[in-house]
C-alpha cells in the first residue's frame, strides 16, 4: 500500500466526465492512493457524490490574463503556420472583436503582442509573462496556502486547456509538488490549447505524444506518458446495457422501428446543423415510403442552447425522437454545463440500439465504433450558406482529421442527393466503415481503451516512486 496523497484537480467541469463519473477513483483507491478532489468548479463533489474535496473559493485571475492568453495562442499558431508551412493553423483563430472601445483596445493590444512574439522564443516569453501575472493574484496565494495545509504528494490536473488552472499549478510547482496534466481532447494539441506547463503529461495515444513533442519543443519525451483516455471506458461496461425493449420503453421509442442517431454539433462547428437533420429526416421519410420502418434519434450537443432545430423537429415529429443528454446546467458558461453519471447509460444504449450515427465531424464516431456501428459524416454545403456563416468543410481540413488511415474510416456524404442511398446501403449491410474506423480509433484513442484509468494511476505511481 502506498497511501500517497493525490489531489485530482478540476479547474473546470470538463474533466468530471472522465475522472468523477467513471471508475477512475475506485481504481486509484484499490491501488492504495489517498484521493482528494481539488475543486475549482461550482459542482460540489462532496454533496453530489460523497467524494472528499477541497474547494477553491478564490477564482480571481489577473485582468490581463485573457489578453496574454489570446496572444499566446495566436503567436503559437503563427509559429506552427511558418514552421510547417501549413495554412490550416490560421483557421483555428477566432476573429477579433471590434465592438466598443474596450474590445477595440483589447484586440489592438493582442495584435501588438502577437506581432512581437510570433516565434518559439516569443511564445516562451508570453508564457513567462502569464506565469508572472498569475503569481501576483490572490488566488495563487490562496491555493498555495491550501497546498501547504493539505500537503498532497502530487497534483493531477484533469485538463491542460483551462486558464483557471494556471495559478493553482504554479503554487504547486513553487512548493515542489509534482504536477501532471491530462491532455483532454483529440484535437487540442495542434490548436494551441496547451495552456498549462506541468512536470508531466498524460496523453491518449502515441500520435498525441508525438504531437506534444512536435508543437512544444520544451517538453521532453520522458515527460509524456501514453495512457489512453477514460472517455470511452463506459462503452465497455456491460452493466450499463439495457435490453432493446427496456430502452425503447424508457424513452418512448417505437419498438417496431429501426433508429438512426443524429448527433448534434455546437453552433461554432456546424452553424447550419439543423438542415443536416432535416436532410436525414427527408431521406428516412423517402425510405419509409419504400417499405422501411425508420426513425431518427436526435441527441443534441450538450452545450448547444439554441432553438435552431425546433422547426425541423416539429415538422418531422412523426420521425424524430428527441433524447437530450442528461447534463446539468450549473452556470452560464459552456464549461458550467456538466455531465451526469446517468448520461453514460443513455449514451451507451443510444449507441447500442441505433443502427448507426450521422453528424458533422464529431468524435461520436468513436463512441459508435466501440459498439461496432457505422458513421456518416456530412460534408456538403447547405444552400443557406452565405457570407459570415462558417462552412463545415473547413472542419475536415483540421490536423486531427489527418490521423484517418484512409477516407473509408467514415462514410462521407459529399452530396445531399447521395444521402438516401448511403443510408439504405448501410441498413442493407452493403456499406460499412467499421473495420477501417477501428484502425482509426486505435490511432487516436490508443491500444488499450479499457485500461486508461489504470494506466493513469500506474503513471502517477511511477512518478511518485
Automatic annotation (TrEMBL):
Protein name: UDP-glycosyltransferase
Source lineage: Bacteria, Pseudomonadati, Bacteroidota, Flavobacteriia, Flavobacteriales
